[in-house]
Write a structure and sequence with these properties.
single chain, alpha/beta, eight-stranded parallel β-barrel, 53% helix
Length: 316
């Protein structure tokens, strides 16, 4: 048995890509995209007709949004629909990162994306809307969840963020393992960051212990992996979203995989944390890694969104 097969026996495996061909190869349960992955997909030869479809739809849409905004939304939803034709589970589609500090705008965008999915014949039970784990994003998710729209809170780097998301009733969170490790590698280059010393692994483990101790139903989906060791250390997590190259590496590895996260093997019993807006913002202020990586992630996704808009603008 490969480590990928063993992992599938204890964790739901999600593909972190917008590449349809890669998803066909790795056969995940769910899939997730973001502006960076959509941009990479748009560079592939097979997606060029889809870019033209997006431009044509945007030119005819009359919904109050600009042509370029409509083209980007069409592309994200169409890629999501194509992926759903292949996988049995859910797709996560991200709102524009530039809206990350505007609760009302995120709710409006999420409703638009969900309407587009439903117009395409996709049930909302198969879609999650990805939103950055800012305070405003968490409040948007709280509103959306109450209206029946599932949310994936992304760019999550700390336990206070995770607690606030769970209290808001978010369906799923995506703590970013590799980006946490990147920060410590840059700021503390002499630290041993391997195996269970990886601070990204430690962060997800602490969130898992907290959620399971206090009975939260929010799904934990580790994301942003740099190597297979990080994945193996989190075997047993509710879900893990993994890039195609790391999925293929796990598939080719016939070694033994040990389950490290489980309800029967909680490594601690953390005390309950109360999180309101003031305490959330203070906790983020006191955590330079979480603050810097959240801001950096929003900037990166926003930059890729702008690049995608420029690509589509030439067609419009």
């Amino acid at each position: 048995m490969s480590k990928l097969d063993a992992l599938r026996g204890m964790t739901i495996v999600v593909a972190d890509t917008g590449d349809i061909d890669a998803i066909r190869r790795v056969k995940p349960e769910d899939a997730t995209t973001n502006p960076s992955l959509i941009l990479k997909a748009a560079d592939l030869e097979g997606y060029q007709p889809l870019l033209k479809q997006a431009a044509a739809w945007a030119a005819s849409a009359n919904n109050g949004d600009s042509k370029i905004v409509n083209a980007c939304d069409f592309l994200a939803v169409k890629i999501g629909c194509d992926i759903l034709n292949i996988i049995p589970g859910m797709i996560s589609t991200e709102v524009d990162a530039r809206l990350s500090f505007d609760t009302e705008a995120m709710v409006t965008k999420a409703n638009k994306l969900m309407t587009m999915y439903e117009d395409a014949g996709v049930s909302r039970e198969r879609v999650m809307i990805k939103i950055a784990s800012t305070w405003e994003g968490i409040k948007a998710a709280e509103i959306l969840e109450k209206s029946g729209i599932h949310c994936n809170l992304t760019l999550l780097f700390s336990l206070p963020q995770a607690v606030a998301c769970a209290e808001a009733g978010a369906t799923l969170i995506s703590p970013f393992v590799g980006r946490i490790m990147d920060w410590y590698k840059s700021n503390s280059p002499d630290m041993d960051l391997t195996g269970f010393n990886d601070p990204g692994v430690q962060s997800v483990t602490s969130i898992y212990n907290y959620y399971k101790t206090h009975g939260y139903g929010t799904i934990i989906m580790g994301a942003s992996f740099r190597n297979t060791s990080e994945i193996e250390c989190l075997a047993g997590c509710d879900k893990l979203t993994i890039s195609p190259d790391l999925l293929e590496a796990l598939e080719q590895d016939e070694g033994t995989l040990v389950r490290h996260l489980s309800m029967s093997n909680l490594s601690s019993s953390p005390a309950k944390i109360e999180v309101d807006e003031a305490s959330f913002r203070w906790a983020m202020n006191e955590d330079p890694m979480a603050t810097e990586k959240l801001a950096d992630g929003i900037r990166r996704f926003a930059a890729d969104q702008v690049t995608l808009e420029q690509r589509l603008e030439s067609l419009l």
